[in-house]
Automatic annotation (TrEMBL):
Name of the featured protein: aldehyde dehydrogenase (NAD(+))
InterPro entries attached to this UniProt entry: Ald_DH/histidinol_DH (IPR016161), Ald_DH_C (IPR016163), Ald_DH_CS_GLU (IPR029510), Ald_DH_N (IPR016162), Aldehyde_DH_dom (IPR015590), LUC3-like (IPR044086)
PANTHER family: ALDEHYDE DEHYDROGENASE-RELATED (PTHR11699)
Taxonomic source organism: Aspergillus heteromorphus CBS 117.55
UniProt lineage: Eukaryota, Fungi, Dikarya, Ascomycota, Pezizomycotina
EC number: 1.2.1.3
Keyword Lipoprotein among record annotations: no
Length: 476
């Protein structure tokens, strides 16, 4: 049966509920309004938290196998509705259908594989008289606060770890992209008991209401560093557990011995996926000076082959940026680049006609700007990439690390030992050699420095939804 993607509800206690007032987000490819969604109040939140607390007492005592079966049923529902979710994702987020298909496919995989991981239980001592065991127990009610760039994967990547470890979860999608998040919770009603997976859509006040709520035990937040700080300050009041997945400004170092023709398409794709709106795509590209000009020119030529336009058109790679705020931020950065007299190559010749209507930013390469410039220091979160020259290994590693962010970083070279030597010195939560932006449900993902606190995914990520408990068991 097709998923209804025209009407949208909160999901509270497995009931689809409405609110007196509603709001809507904008389709970024057309700037036309998307459908109305609930505008939740403090009373809606209270009802959801009460339902979540009630559900927790039973759900936390279910077996791991039971919870895994429910997670797999959810994965099956997502998979069965892939087509509808992909179309809705493109409509709300703007990313091209091909990239939306990858996101939904990853969400299905994440739902299955995260719930296949095994939490450790360690016998620390075992004698005739006493056994001491460390095990992991659920926290209670968790809230998943989700950004607008990956509304499906990042919601599922929080829902499953929370409920698989025995918690209940309340999903709050971004006000810019509330649609898929609400449908995920609607599908979850077919797989989980009431109160286990719920979702509320709202305005800018809903996030703070959630972080302040005394009935919530943990916040899993993905978003910007600025909001992350606010979330942490709010959680401090009740010592809520929290995981923060924040921004990035990923440096990538290209050594002089690379096969330029082979890697240019990879680097181009990994710099501009989702129109640069991914926390861990390439944000600073350091190219060895001896191949700088050739690499830059081939990168530009490659990007010229990629089409911009509405994500609904089959051959489009560059969709719009997601919202007017992001559009204004990107234009502000482009103006600063211009005012500073930096050399840019703007690639606008390959736009589909529909591109005129939406929040489209032409893909732009900034040619060897100073390290102190905004485009190097900040996370553009738009299709704007600074390419920079380097000469000395120590110097480029120092420059790569000279950032308040530390999400991901990579080194590309045919000399694996050299690349590994350089990679070992990079300060980031994920470090790659001859690759970037790889992730998996079984691998912990997180940032260092201002890029985050804690990890998600992998066993380590699951433990973020648990308390450690030490059992001292005297047998006599
Ligand atoms: P954002 O911080 O503006 O919003 C993220 C979420 O927080 C939204 O749901 C928003 O409604 C909510 N929110 C806003 N203010 C809040 C408050 N005071 N208290 C609680 N919740 C609040 O981020 P965004 O613009 O949606 O997303 C883009 C940012 O997210 C970028 O910086 C990007 O790098 C980062 N990001 C990080 C990761 C990661 O895994 N590290 C992944 C994706 C995006």
């Amino acid at each position: 049966m097709a998923l209804n993607t025209t009407t949208f509800h909160n999901v509270i206690n497995n009931e689809l509920t409405s609110t007196t007032r509603t709001r809507h987000a904008i389709n970024p490819a057309t700037r036309q309004p998307n459908p109305e969604v609930p505008l939740s109040t403090a009373a809606d939140l209270d009802r959801a938290v009460t339902a979540a607390r009630q559900a927790f007492s039973k759900w936390s005592r279910t077996s791991v196998d039971e919870r895994r079966a429910a997670a797999h049923a959810f994965a099956d529902r997502l998979e069965a509705h892939t087509k509808d979710l992909v179309a809705l994702l493109t409509q709300e987020q703007g990313k091209p259908l091909a990239q939306a298909t990858i996101e939904v496919g990853m969400a299905v995989q994440w739902a299955r594989e995260l719930s296949g991981l095994v939490l450790p239980e360690t016998v620390l001592e075992d004698t005739d008289s006493r056994q001491v065991i460390q095990r992991y127990v659920p926290l209670g009610v968790c809230a998943a606060i989700v950004p607008w760039n990956f509304p499906v994967l990042l919601a599922v990547g929080k829902i499953i770890p929370a409920v698989y470890t025995g918690n209940t979860v309340l999903v709050k999608p971004s006000p810019f992209t509330p649609y898929c998040g609400l449908k995920l919770a609607e599908l979850a009603t077919q797989c989980f008991p009431p109160g286990v997976v719920q979702a509320l859509s709202g305005g800018d006040d809903l996030g703070p209401m959630i972080t302040e709520h005394p009935g919530i035990d943990k916040i899993s937040f993905t978003g910007s560093c600025a909001t992350g700080r606010r979330v942490m300050a709010s959680c401090a009041k009740s010592l809520k557990r929290l995981t923060l997945e924040l921004g990035g400004n990923d440096p990538v170092i290209i050594c002089e011995d690379v096969d330029i023709d082979a890697i240019v398409p990879k680097i181009g794709t990994l710099s501009f996926l989702c129109s640069g709106q991914i926390c861990m795509v390439i944000k600073r590209l350091y190219i060895h000076e001896s191949i700088y000009a050739e690499f830059r020119d081939k990168l530009i030529a490659y990007i010229q082959t990629l089409k911009s336009g509405p994500g609904t058109e089959a051959d489009v790679f560059f969709g719009p940026v997601q919202n007017s705020m992001q559009y204004d931020k990107a234009n502000d950065l482009l103006n600063a680049i211009k005012a500073d007299g930096l050399k840019t190559i703007s690639i606008s010749g390959n736009s589909r006609p529909g591109a005129a209507a939406g929040y489209f930013i032409p893909p732009t390469i900034v040619d060897n700007p100073p390290d102190s410039s905004r485009v190097v220091q900040e996370e553009p979160f738009a299709p704007i990439l600074p390419v920079l020259k380097w000469a000395d290994e120590d110097e480029v590693v120092r420059r790569a690390n000279a950032s308040e962010y530390g999400l991901a970083a990579s080194v590309w070279s045919r000399d694996f030992a050299r690349a590994r030597r350089m990679a070992d010195r990079l300060e980031a939560g994920s470090v790659y050699v001859n690759s970037h932006f790889e992730c998996a449900p079984w691998a912990p993902f997180g940032g260092v420095k201002m890029s985050g606190v804690g990890t998600e995914w992998g066993v380590n990520g699951l433990l973020g939804y648990c308390n450690s408990q030490t059992l001292w068991l005297h047998k006599g």
